[in-house]
Amino acid sequence: MLPKRTCAALAVLAVTAGTLAGAGAANAGQPHGGDRGPKPVAFERTATYPVFQNRPAGEDAAAQTVAEISATSEDGRTLVYTDAAARRIGFLDISDAGRPQGLGTLSLAELGDAEDEPTSVSVVGRYVLVVVNTSASHSRPSGRLDVISLRTRERVASHDLGGQPDSVAISKDQRYAAVAIENERDEEATPAGGEEGDLPQAPAGFVQIVDLEEASPARWTTRAVPLTREDGSALPALVAAGITEPTDPEPEYVSVNSRGQLAVTLQENNGVVMIDLASGRLTKAFTAGTASVEGIDTVEDGVIDQTGSLSDVPREPDALGWIDDRYLATANEGDWKGGTRGWTVFDSRTGKVAWDAGNTFEHTAARHGLLNDDRSENKGTEPEGLAVATYDGVRYAFVGSERSNFVAVYDVSKPTRPVFEQVLPATNGPEGLLPIPSRGLLAVSSEEDDAEAGVRASVSLFRLGKGAPAHPSLVSGADSAGAPIGWGALGALSAVPGRADELYTVTDAAYSTTRILTVDAAREPAVIRRELTVRDAAGEPVGYDAEGIHARPQGGFWLAVEGGTGPGNQLVRLDRHGVTQQVVPVPSDVAAGLGPQGFEGVTATTDRRGREIVWATLQRRAAADPAGVVRLGRYDVRAGTWSWYGYRLGTTATAGDWIGLSEITVVGDRLAVIERDKLNGPAARVKRIYTVDLPKGASPGGALTVLPKTLAHDVLPELRATKGWTQEKLEGLTVAGNGHVYAVTDNDGLDDSTGETVLLDLGTARKVLGRD
């Protein structure tokens, strides 16, 4: 069973933008409740549904299918999502939040053309409103609003929108729908006097209001709200507001408050406009402004270095939502010129910033092992989705990170003082954030689908309830400069000698500099307290592909280093300061038979006479070895000699899959290993701990002696119990000084992975492995 985890506090580390007003970002990093006292409630994941399972009969399971924007029926039991990749909308039964069921799809090819693309969806009473992009080109934008019966899934009406639509929102009284007609720019076109992808590019976008008062959808009418003059010149209100290119507004996202005021982001133009829905009159326009953000990673160099900064960057907001009838929140994703890696609260009366997240959104990602270094130079965490809703009398804002695969939850009961509550893990590219307060649920739909990597687009459900959530199971504390310790790609574990509740783990080749991290496992969630940079013999930081770690009772460490080729596989001995003291290469005859999968785990024993024996495992079979047998290496440190035993792997019938070993640790008179497949998500099958008797001495040589194995523990149920995407790389295993068995998954630094790290306390060694 997974241990209960408490909501984790984000250290207050913000160096905020110079334009901040009010309380600023200081409260963004407080523990849940802040100075309002703790609240015994949190959102807990109940299910993750891969939408490829909802595909039409006969369709290839590997065909791309996504879930971008979602809506629900009025009873909150049927969820509808857009699938732009497959040109359709999908339906899910979420009556049981723990077991969503596919209800099939509706292809837009049946309603129009095979290239028609759904961009957003909403529900009004018995009808699903789908906005559809039918554009032949950027210069000839077009679109329509299809009205679908929720019961029969037949189209009952269709309305021309006059341009390429993006998002749709419904007024609280359900009298109006508002559609952002973006008429987006061609990123490869060059306007006169500009550069490739620049604005302006005609035709200009606008807002379409749909009057829904008539009972029959066929009688609904549309009213266009232009955002330029009739001759294409700029509206004075947009010019006065400082909109970047007011002749090409490109409206992106729409949201309506309870007073019928529509707010619209002009993302590429770094602005917001407000429209009165009843009259269709533009009432206000203001710039989203710029921000300077310090204490963030801005260089894609394989190092999480949070000392970079951005100066006077346009926010360029994407999604927005009304916190109340006065305050607006925006997710500042950025587009072609900006993106401030956070979110902002604006006072709609003045257009001024009331609060800004500064660097705290990025720090949230770093603290939870979700900072994607590959995006450091390009918008970072990229906050894109945003939604606001009230649950049990508390107003929450949800902000989704497109590139770090999480949703941050904030209490916005005081709009100018948001309080960070928790992080919700998502599959890749969380796009749609859908609060369902009537059922205490939040649905998160993701737009990234990678069948080759086995990480598929999904709809995740979370329920607000009492008790601490299972995620996160591991977070980091602050480094010496006060920023959260950035981490990820944890592929190994070791007990800390003499410390009952501490663990060591180590980063692998996902990062260019190797670090050893000390984990306090007595806390829930466990906390990374310290980091130690690994150095070469000359004392310079070094990047090893460290796949195994063993802390030596006599001081220092052994690392198992995997090579890109066979000769690159090494055992590396470090002193207590992390400086390399000895490098032991794999013997040349073994190296010759290895491919890219080599050393994967290391452990050691030291007897009373000080004789140290190091054990290391290869991940897969060496070329000349018997089929299905992988090597366990025994290295006698004093003698400087290797000998080898064999371990027989299980088999798999799944095409493209393989089974290998990913960890080894000594447990009394046995060796415990992790044996796993290459599969993840619902396809995952083999995530197991086996034991073999610890050989008394060196192998006799000749043919490999295969050690009989015993299944000790199947970890797959614990991984599936997270209700998330079952992680592929169960890679770390150790028995701590407190007698508990710990295991951890490797998130690969978010490369071909959801990024979620699962640290498991599996229970006592007696219970898990049958030994004290």
CATH C-level of the largest domain = Mainly Beta
CATH-defined fold name of the largest domain: Methylamine Dehydrogenase, Chain H
Q: Mean pLDDT, rounded to whole units?
A: 93
Low-confidence stretches: 1-37
Number of helical stretches of at least 4 residues: 5
Kindly report how far apart the N and C termini lie.
20 Å
**Which strand-content bin applies to the residues?**
35-45%
Which CATH architecture of the largest domain is right?
Answer: 7 Propeller
Q: Which structural class do you get from the secondary structure elements?
A: mainly beta
| Main sheet record | 5 strands, mixed
Oligomer: single chain
Helix fraction bin: under 10%
Strand order in the sheet with the most strands: 31-35-34-33-32
CATH superfamily of the largest domain: YVTN repeat-like/Quinoprotein amine dehydrogenase
Radius of gyration in whole Å, from Cα? 28 Å
Give a verbal description of the structure.
By secondary structure, this protein is mainly beta. It has 2 domains: 26-466, YVTN repeat-like/Quinoprotein amine dehydrogenase (Methylamine Dehydrogenase, Chain H), CATH 2.130.10.10; 487-769, Glycosyl hydrolase domain, family 43 (Tachylectin-2, Chain A), CATH 2.115.10. Helices cover 4% and strands 42% of the residues. It contains 5 helices and 51 strands. The strands form 13 sheets. Strands 31-35-34-33-32 form a 5-stranded mixed beta sheet, with no helix packed on it. The chain has a 5-stranded mixed beta sheet with strand order 40-41-42-43-47, with no helix packed on it. Strand 22 and strand 23 form a beta hairpin. It is elongated.
